[in-house]
């Protein structure tokens, strides 16, 4: 029986931009096996938090721990190798390569950052079984031999998630995974995210509150760089300050 455990945590996280405090005193705990949403109006600091957690930005102060290790001063590539992976890190899918080759290329780039040319075709062949497995996990097995560029928008986003899985993330950060999607694709992606969260943690920025209510176990509401409220959907949606500040009621 799995006791939920914190895989990623931030304490007193702060980031200033030329005197402007974009993220202020943020505490955040992300649990294994759970889907955690970061919500809040534009400018609330959500993107900055993602950049701080993935180490694309250095915090002005505060501390970040990944799987019990202090990563406050760790490089983005190292953090990715340690298992904290952001979806659009590899979101540049190659439209002229097949779906399968996109995943095989991702499997060749251990840090998920930077680019490495294929060493040899036989080295690539060795990656085929794992690549097919990842396509199976996201339901793209039937499209393995199609050109990535020919996929629908929704399935391209799913392919991005598959390439992210090449890094075997323990914590998956998804930046608006449903953005621009129709009802059907939202359902498909929700199912994929749910299955991915069974053996890892998911932290996602999401604007669609219906999705958040349906999918997320825990919600952190941001406003002007600070955490306004945190809890499950029922709790935060009834919070007076959240209703006023975020939902406008
Ligand atoms: P969100 O993702 O919630 O919309 P952001 O994290 O993008 O919010 O932005 C939070 C605040 O920080 C905004 O007021 C934004 O203008 C500011 N900000 C973000 N990045 C920078 C930057 N590189 N330089 C200056 N200000 C920034």
TrEMBL record:
Q: Which UniProt keywords apply?
A: ATP-binding, Nucleotide-binding, Transport
An annotated GO cellular component of this protein is: plasma membrane
Q: Does the keyword ATP-binding apply?
A: yes
Q: Which CDD domains match?
A: ABC_Mj1267_LivG_branched
Coiled-coil intervals? none
Name the InterPro entries on file.
Answer: AAA+_ATPase, ABC_AA/LPS_Transport, ABC_transporter-like_ATP-bd, P-loop_NTPase
A molecular function (GO) held by this record is:
ATP hydrolysis activity
**Record carries keyword Nucleotide-binding:** yes
- Please list the residue ranges annotated as the ABC transporter domain: 8-249
Protein name (record):
ABC transporter ATP-binding protein
- Organism this protein belongs to: Mesorhizobium waimense
